[in-house]
Amino acid sequence: xxxxxxxxxxxxxxxxxxxxxxxxxxxxxxxxxxxxxxxxxxxxxxxxxxxxxxxxxxxxxxxxxxxxxxxxxxxxxxxxxxxxxxxxxxxxxxxxxxxxxxxxxxxxxxxxxxxxxxxxxxxxxxxxxxxxxxxxxxxxxxxxxxxxxxxxxxxxxxxxxxxxxxxxxxxxxxxxxxxxxxxxxxxxxxxxxxxxxxxxxxxxxxxxxxxxxxxxxxxxxxxxxxxxxxxxxxxxxxxxxxxxxxxxxxxxxxxxxxxxxxxxxxxxxxxxxxxxxxx
Length: 279
Prior knowledge:
This protein is an all-alpha fold. The protein has helices at residues 2-5, 12-24, 29-50, 67-71, 73-92, 100-112, 118-125, 132-154, 159-183, 186-189, 195-199, 204-227, 234-248, 258-261, 271-276; strands at 60-61, 64-65. Helices cover 68% and strands 1% of the residues.
């Protein structure tokens, strides 16, 4: 379990929890922290299971051996299960008030559930001809939705008005990941590339073409910045979302994005700046 969580990757989802909570203007730090940790544990669990031989059979994750390659398939299954349970235990022990806790439990369960969460996404991936958008929204968007909703709960906002922000960000992330799988290198990805083609999985670059996938990515970003609801930190939040999306693209594609020249917003502010400031 520790191998799956540390040293970790970009921690985008927990950072998103904090960013939304602060944008809403009334952040409860203990609630935000418990939600951020829970989200990351669920994400790490999904990576452990995604790498298993029955799915991707990936040898590398975050630049080192995947859990099943390091410890065996049986231990990897149990480690992923253990991380899911631990995620909900963190919420139970997180000193969260009796109003927010049931909301957070529901949001997290939806994000990983079989109806529209990660489990649904993994099931779509196992189908011969899945709907690309439904696959993206479940496989990747669902946990981003959980992150934005959890952040809103921790910040005293309405989680439902933030749900679309998470869904759009998740879709954009998955398309960028598809482009990286098609165009990037293993060093940048931190995992094997070309896996979608090898396993016959849905991939935006393959279904829409490279240019079509890139246009779809930019369309999602336009919708994303418009979807950020009115809140005290709206302008900063829009900048941060674009800054994060910039780093998702394959290195060779970043210069041609609307992020670099369309002037939709001023120079993006790094999300790390927000998180480095005292709460």
